[in-house]
From TrEMBL:
The keyword NADP does not apply. Keywords: Membrane, Transmembrane, Transmembrane helix. One of its GO terms (cellular component) is membrane. The chain crosses the membrane at residues 7-33, 39-57, 69-92, 98-117, 124-141, 147-166, 178-198, 210-233, 240-258, 264-284. InterPro entries: AA-Vitamin_Transporters (IPR050638), EamA_dom (IPR000620), EmrE-like (IPR037185). It is found in: Membrane. The keyword Protein transport does not apply. Residues 5-139, 149-283 form the EamA domain. This is DMT family transporter. It comes from Candidatus Merdimorpha stercoravium.
Amino acid sequence: MKSLKGIVYALASSSTFGLIPLFSIPILVSGAMEAPSLLFYRFAFATLAMGLAGALLRKDFRVPPRLLLKISLLGVFYASTSMGLTLSYQYIPSGVATTIHFLYPVVVTVIMTAFFGEKRSGTLLRAALLSIAGVGLLSWGEGTIRLEGLLLVLMTVGTYATYIVGVNRSGVETIDPIVLTFYVFVVSTALFAGYAASTTGVESIADTPTLVRLLLLALLPTVISDFTLILAVKYVGSTVTAILGSMEPVVAVLMGVWCFSERFGVKSILGLALVVTAVTMVVVRQSNKG
């Protein structure tokens, strides 16, 4: 039962995270707001939503002082991932960045087996490699590749892998998921406030459509995505959660086809098939474990 819950949470997390382009691209393309302000509002609204949810559910937001530093570091890793990916798009094609970023399941697997004694699994390793190949076929396109972009996106491989492992093995797993998510968002909001203030400044929200998109961006691919990620890690661990994260680019590509008339050819179909195969392998393995 725990495995099934974890799989559902992991797929919900990666699928909602894949909705980021649906809400962010129209804002950036229209010129309504620059990326630094978008990131700030995304996490500011997410923090308010998570805080309200915790208050309504009467959660205890008191956290042992010994865990505050760990939570702050997790917030830094989470925010660094979002910022690194966003900045990398200025130097390399987003598809290339997405493909390189999805090396993180392999890094998670290596960390868990090397440092935390997780049993090696040939099935999970094969699934991780299949998912990376599938993401590559889905995302890779033509474009100029600059060293700055490669370094930024390689950074996100490490920061996101560390975040997923940290949620599982740093001691914060004892904290209520709503409270943990709230504090991760608080740290992220503070970092993006500084980022916006030091670059474009915090821009005002120009119109109602922009406000609606920002609210949806905060709710679906931020609040729901990270909250279900934390629950997934709790139930099925870091490695399985990371591999099932390959559903994110699948959803992003499908949203691009549906909403932005992007191409979906033979390469995309093959990539989708590889990702679905990888996900199926993980689901079957977890189901057999009971």
